[in-house]
Give the backbone structure.
Amino acid sequence: MTVRRILIVSGTHGNEINPVWAVKQFNRKENSFNHGIEYEYIIGNPVAYEKGCRYIDVDLNRSFKESENLDQNKNSFYETNRANFLVDEFGIGGSKSCQIAIDLHTTTAHMGTSIVLYGRRFKDFCLAALLQNKFGLPIYLHEKDKAQTGFLVEAWPCGLVIEIGAVAQNFYDQNIINRFLIILGSLREEIDKLKNNLIELPKELIVHVHKGSIDYPRDEIGNIDGLIHPERINQDWKLIKKGDPLFLDSRGITIKYEGDQFVWPVFIGEVAYKEKKIAMSYTKKEVICSNNQWVYEFESL
């Protein structure tokens, strides 16, 4: 396995400040040793970070479209240009090319420490399986949603998101920071073991596959007319079955889940998703058998 260059991105959303602080601490420690792994550190959206807002024009983590789309929108939005810069600088063929991208995020939802994957790339499965095996982290596999595309890590051959919450926007939480530091340190350790053939994949990977998102109840003019039901608050990753409460509307009426299939909700009440008309997303649990091809493709990076 060749020496890896890993891009660590924090501040992709400018009001998610704990990852930025964690990366500063991690960088300070890693300067003394790198175990054959080179890191590049970047604040994804520095202007939004300085202003303490999620983004300036559009969501940066939805701005990594295909190259032709990026070119069409060139100079129109700050985040579109920023996405171009990051790919040109750190993407394959860039001046500081990295094979792996790790995008660090926080959420106001009660997601705990979790992993987000986009699509079923074997290299991503390999890295996610090692982390899940070590820490038991839940994995949100986001795929096949035309309304949600252009994620940062998709622009690199291998990449995943570390999502930690709940924490308020623009609020520092040392416990959240410590979790990022543990994950970042473990990534280096696990990749180092892979390099030296000292690790085997677990037998299976457990994922929660994205099945769709639901909006808040709304009135006839489009205003939110119902809140997350008290029994649903802070219940991310917990099973929902037919008849379970979802929302409590302005008249005190409970709106229940009417689907026939069991679902597991994620990002319940995420503040930043209100503008996307998402109150929560539904997932279905899936067990994927490990495959040695995952390791082979990861080693070929």
In short: The first helix runs from residue 18 to 30.
